[in-house]
Amino acid sequence: MQAKKGEHPLGDAGQLILFGVFLITWILDSFVLRCSTFFASSISLVMRLMFLVTALVVAFFLFKSGHVAVIEEQRPSRIISTGAFGYVRHPLYLGSILVYLGLAVSTMSLFCLALLVVIVLFYNTIAAYEEKMMEAKFGQAYTAYQLNTGRWLPRFGKKG
Fold it and tell me: What pTM, to 2 d.p., does this model score?
């Protein structure tokens, strides 16, 4: 699998592998073996499902708004700072993280929560790589965008 221009060389393959590992772990731990889901009884199913639905709704917004950067025939030749990109620099990655978090919390799988740490570290690594490429391409304009927009969490009280 060849990386798209501007993306980490292991980004797509890593995401697919981590998704597969997470999904297998989640299904086996949550519904078959139930090795690490003992905290599930301490939080009501309704609360866990409300968290899952909220995470999925926010992830959907991030995916829908963020896909402008990947569905076009050519990559945008400018910094996108509208939609979800006005809040976070990596809405597609954040949406994926929220889906993983929602699934892990819905069944309180500690194995999946531990795996989520690895997934977040992976996404942070590929995001940092891609940001260096964006800095090289757009220079000061991208640096200003970084000051106003958080990588994972929105920044409030923007600096300009």
Answer: 0.92
Q: Which residues contact 15 (CB under 8 A, 6 or more apart)?
A: 96, 122
Coil, strand, or helix at residue 150? strand
Euclidean distance between the first and final Cα of the chain, in Å? 40
Q: Is 15 helix (H, G, I), strand (E, B) or coil?
A: helix
Closest CA to 62 of 24, 88, 33: 88
The dihedral sign for the CA sequence 101, 147, 84, 12: negative
Q: How far is CA 56 from CA 99, 108, 114, in A?
A: 6, 16, 20
Query: What does the pLDDT look like over 15-49, one tens digit per residue?
Result: 999 999 999 999 999 999 999 999 999 999 999 99
The predicted model gives 107-119 an average pLDDT of 98
Q: What does the DSSP 8-state code read for residue 113?
A: H
